[in-house]
Design brief:
- There is one protein chain.
- Helix content is about 45%, strand content about 25%.
- It is an alpha+beta fold.
- Among the domains are: about 55 residues; about 120 residues, Efflux pump adaptor protein, beta barrel domain (Elongation Factor Tu (Ef-tu), domain 3, Beta Barrel); about 190 residues, no CATH class.
- The longest helix has about 70 residues.
- The chain is flat and about 130 Å long.
Length: about 550
């Protein structure tokens, strides 16, 4: 061991001596070793060729949908006063030259029909609310469970009533056909066969055997089911009672079939006897009367047993479907609420108000006449933006919608306004249809001059507390929209990496989308808050965690003391 240690020390001394004597070669070798190690480590840790995924989380937020357009600032403009509905004018509140404030009532159109529609909708809504409350009471868990319990109890009672009659029916059939005739000492089933004419002997055997077979089948099932009935009580579990009802129903069908075949047998015998104009035997008449009463009893029991089975099934289905039925009732109620609100919103269209402060230039509306598209005009010194919009965007906007306005010439200035006028007829230029839209500013700013170029963003819809995802995460295939999502969420990307590599491809999850803005899209169904989805995919990216060291620092450390 000492010799090995001594040899090792001597070898290290020789290496040191060689390194001191050949400094340049030693440094080059050391650098080569470092670079080779760095290259090998980079190869082992490289993700070149692997697809990387940048993910994001589904969250709730506010999303605002808008359309944009450009135009110019105008001043001292004359704006037509228009009604959004047609009807008889009942009130004119201005004349040319009148100065009016923004929002002043100018004209009123007969709204009796609209108000009647609102009243009807209010009554319909109240009726729907009452119906919904009754539905909730009738379909409460307690009531539905009580109904189901009663259905099982009624079913057990029905079976009990059946077994009050079945013993008499089975005994009656036995006595009728399988007891001996005191005169001939034959079973009556055989005695009846002997009453037919010779030419009917072969055919009567068929009727006789059909009855005997059906009776034996019914008797076997009856005996088994009778034993089952004796072991079941009304406090037995629901499945046991339901099975008993089902078995009893099948048993009664077999007995009913045996009674039918007995009737067929006796009818054939009686028909054969009467061929010779002989009188029907009294015992046959008595047996036929009994068989008819058995038919009535079995048919009644079959109806009651089927009713019990159906009642239990219906109450069980109602319990399963209660949540869906409740949602359906809620949607119906919501539709009536929305219909009422739409009618109330539309009622405002029957009252024409000043879109801004100004001077009435003309009045063409007259009381008693039918409102036309233009009822007058107003002049204002207030600045207005006139925009040019294409036919797709203009279909999305309405009077009164909020607008954000920016100016090319004035940086950092943003103003708000509302849509005050929309052209009813577009202008066609080189096959392209455009519409003029006027935006009234909410405030005045002296920096804004007539003729300035403006850009306007008109808010067409907005939603709060909506599920939103980046728009670039939503893909389309034909008419279907989907997002990419991993079954197991990916880990946080490594430091310095844009995304997380994965050899397993993500799944396509179909979604239903709502409104969207410049960056985000609303998700109506298919995802929930907190879900991780893929927002972007990166392919053929090299991302290593190789640790590098400065060549300068290595050389700087060299010298006689290395």
């Amino acid at each position: 061991m000492k010799n090995f240690f001594k040899k090792t020390v001597n070898f290290a001394v020789k290496i040191k001596s060689y390194a001191l004597a050949h400094k340049i070669i030693s440094i080059i070798v050391l650098i080569l070793l470092i670079f080779i190690g760095s290259w090998a480590y980079g190869k082992m840790t490289s993700t070149t060729g692997e697809t990387q995924y940048i993910t994001t989380t589904v969250k709730k937020g506010t999303i605002i949908s808008s359309v944009t357009a450009s135009g110019q600032v105008e001043s001292s403009n004359q704006v037509d006063l228009k009604a959004d509905v047609s009807g008889t004018i009942t009130y004119v509140n201005v004349k040319p030259g009148d100065k009016v404030e923004k929002g002043k009532l100018l004209f009123v159109i007969d709204s009796k029909d609209a108000q009647k529609s609102i009243r009807d909708a209010e009554i319909s809504l109240e009726s729907a609310k009452i119906s919904f409350e009754k539905f909730k009471i009738e379909n409460s868990s307690d009531n539905l469970n009580n109904d189901l319990v009663k259905a099982y109890d009624d079913g057990f009672n029905t079976v009990s009533n059946v077994f009050l009659d079945l013993p008499n029916v089975m005994t009656g059939l036995y006595d009728m056909f399988f007891k001996s005739n005191t005169t001939t000492w034959q079973w009556y089933v055989d005695w009846y066969e002997g009453q037919v004419k010779t030419e009917d002997k072969d055919e009567v055997k068929i009727f006789k055997q059909a009855f005997i077979d059906s009776y034996n089948k019914a008797k076997t099932a009856y005996d088994i089911n009778l034993n089952n009935y004796k072991t079941v009580t009304r406090t037995s579990d629901n499945a046991t009672i339901e099975t008993l009802i089902s078995q009893t129903y099948e048993d009664v069908k077999l007995i009913s079939n045996a009674v039918k075949n007995a009737n067929n047998y006796l009818d054939f015998v009686n028909s054969s006897i009467q061929k010779d104009n002989l009188d029907t035997p009294a015992i046959l008449t008595t047996d036929k009367t009994l068989l008819n009463s058995y038919t009535t009893k079995t048919n009644t029991h079959l109806t009651n047993l089927f009713s019990s089975t159906t009642s239990i099934k219906n109450y069980k289905d109602t319990l399963l479907n209660t949540d869906l039925d409740t949602q359906s009732e809620q949607l119906s109620l919501k539709q009536k609420e929305n219909s009422l609100q739409d009618l109330k919103d539309k009622l405002a269209d029957y009252y024409v108000r000043a879109p801004f402060s100004g001077t009435i230039a003309s009045v063409t509306a007259k009381v008693g006449e039918t409102s036309s598209s233009t009822m007058g005009s107003i002049i204002t010194n207030q600045k207005i933006a006139t925009l040019s919009m294409n036919e797709v965007d203009v279909a999305k906007i309405k009077l009164g919608q909020k607008t954000t306005i920016t100016f090319d010439a004035i940086e950092d200035l943003s103003m708000t306004g509302i849509v005050s006028e929309i052209d009813a007829i577009g202008t066609v230029s080189q096959g392209v249809v455009s519409y003029s839209v006027k935006i009234t500013f909410d405030t005045e700013n002296d920096s804004v001059k007539p003729g300035m170029s403006v850009s306007a963003s008109i808010i067409t819809d907005s939603k709060t507390d909506a599920l939103i995802v980046p728009s670039n995460a939503v893909k389309s295939k034909n008419t279907t929209k989907y997002v990419l999502m991993f079954s197991t969420p990916l880990s946080t990307p490594a430091t310095g990496s844009q995304g997380t590599p994965s050899k397993i491809a993500p799944n396509q999850v179909t979604v239903e989308t709502g409104i969207s803005d410049d960056t985000n899209t609303e998700i109506i169904s298919g995802l929930k808050e907190g879900d991780q989805i893929v927002s972007r995919t990166i392919t053929s990216t090299s991302s290593t965690s190789t640790k590098t060291t400065s060549t300068k620092s290595i050389l700087g450390g060299g010298g006689p003391g290395m």
